[in-house]
């Protein structure tokens, strides 16, 4: 007797989760200026196709919580959204937490709200008493008048049933491996098979293939294929590469063939100084041969090696080779007075001040935070104009910030 086929179904309840961190960077002013019942809102953020915001009450939302910091999650007035419909209710819960200085949750000050239906118009917010102010002010979580609050939004979709009768998908009969062109080209470079161009770099010889180099670099294309088209005998002569370390040229060739830096690149896994030096040399080579991706890779690596001892050198390199992102990273690093003072005391910054005064102008300009003229602006402008014969003013207005004061005082000391 034939048995009836088995059937199966499943009840599925999917959810969507989003995360937002509110940085309170001026705790004391918010406590003094916002009385009980008054809040300041975070920037809107999106979760599940809806717009949300956090409401921060430094003195509580009512008299019963006047001694505590209270936070709310609010469903904002929906923007133009068709999926889900803008006016449709949404069921969600929120988890609020105080974060420590390592941005980790503080379990004793973490709480999850119940599942709530948010709708517009209707109920659009839900809150949580995070911590009493006296406890926060005594804790290590408040540092330099700053602390952080996280909010996880968990949106629950409607329950649905799904058919589970379909047979499991059979494994494919044909498995396609990932691309391995880079490996084959790397082997071609290593074997030097049918290589048709020779490079001499500081006494070392390298063999490569004109067509590959020309396809990867416009500079190599002009240098190598130009002579070949003209039919000159120079095609057989070795190409001498000046002002480059053989290790850098070897890494450059490896990148041209494989689009990646070699695993045994000098400086990899070694001391920070060696890795930073190799990244600097490779950046110069990448700019020389118009390899934009390699140049950005080196910029990214150097951003991780900026410190008080190297920032002047890296800043000069960024200026020379038009590395905007790397220059911004240097300016950001020296944006605080203490860091700037340490950096200005180095020999590298003194050399930078003499060799590239325009960078100091830009540094001063980047420290402008308020639109007002000040004594330090006038002093710095006159000083730099006289010392470096710069005609244009440093910037139209500069605030009396400690960063600017420290910089101008150091410049005056150098003079």
UniProtKB/TrEMBL annotation:
<dbReference type="InterPro" id="IPR008974">
    <property type="entry name" value="TRAF-like"/>
</dbReference>
<dbReference type="Pfam" id="PF22486">
    <property type="entry name" value="MATH_2"/>
</dbReference>
<dbReference type="InterPro" id="IPR011333">
    <property type="entry name" value="SKP1/BTB/POZ_sf"/>
</dbReference>
<dbReference type="GO" id="GO:0016567">
    <property type="term" value="P:protein ubiquitination"/>
</dbReference>
<dbReference type="InterPro" id="IPR002083">
    <property type="entry name" value="MATH/TRAF_dom"/>
</dbReference>
<dbReference type="InterPro" id="IPR045005">
    <property type="entry name" value="BPM1-6"/>
</dbReference>
<comment type="pathway">
    <text>Protein modification; protein ubiquitination.</text>
</comment>
<feature type="domain" description="BTB">
    <location>
        <begin position="195"/>
        <end position="265"/>
    </location>
</feature>
<protein>
    <submittedName>
        <fullName>BTB/POZ and MATH domain-containing protein 3-like</fullName>
    </submittedName>
</protein>
<dbReference type="Pfam" id="PF00651">
    <property type="entry name" value="BTB"/>
</dbReference>
<feature type="domain" description="MATH">
    <location>
        <begin position="17"/>
        <end position="153"/>
    </location>
</feature>
<comment type="similarity">
    <text>Belongs to the Tdpoz family.</text>
</comment>
<dbReference type="InterPro" id="IPR056423">
    <property type="entry name" value="BACK_BPM_SPOP"/>
</dbReference>
<dbReference type="Pfam" id="PF24570">
    <property type="entry name" value="BACK_BPM_SPOP"/>
</dbReference>
<dbReference type="InterPro" id="IPR000210">
    <property type="entry name" value="BTB/POZ_dom"/>
</dbReference>
